[in-house]
Sequence to fold (259 residues):
Amino acid sequence: MDLVEISYDELGRLLLAAPEDRELLSRCREAAEQLIQSEQVSLESEAGFVEKAFLLTEVFHRLLAEHKTDAITINLCMGTIMEVSGTTACLPLSLLNDAGYLAFCESDFVVIPSGVLLHYISGKPVFFNDPTYPHDNLVTLAHCTAPRRMDGETLEPVRLLTHFESDWGVAPKVEMKLGQKMTVIDPDFNFKRWMGFEAEIVENPFLDICRSQIDVEFRSDTDRINEETRGFHWMACYGGYLRETEYAVRKAGIDWLKL
Fold:
């Protein structure tokens, strides 16, 4: 990977200049209004945060085009970005993933390579997530930046809430399809071994954790998954891609554990 770092000072200058483009500002307002009024979308935050989210998305589009890339990640996404943009990065990252880009929060390069790989294997957006503690063959996966177009085509229903930790800005709670089979990957911190297993979405709960939440059921032994978990974040996508992932991971010289 050729990593290009954009400072928050530079991002701030771009965001300050953007509202001077009246055509751009009008387009962002129209896009926000269109989203809010869409079927299967409910707004439970403020419309102003949604407008600013579209403005931030446009700035990200310009950066992606300028640097000829399709991948972006936001560091300090629960602090600095909020001060600079006047909203949260959650919705912009979701919109970028739905548009076919790779957009991740937190800049966790332990797990991001697995998201890049899984995206190109599946041809679909991926769900970068925080796993909770697995129990009784069940685990809740959650984050505030889930894509809606998880199958690569259809937009899932969404509630536009505030970002969980700050109760501010706007973050999508995507209601993912029940009964959907998923591939789940857990890379380790040392980049020496990845673990993977298949799961099925059984519920979209609403717990006091990150907004997009799915309960997934797995057939693997729960104690074994807890013992073998290494990374802080997991990656997931619709469909079954363990075989292809194992092939690529082993080619890269990384050990693979399928559960």
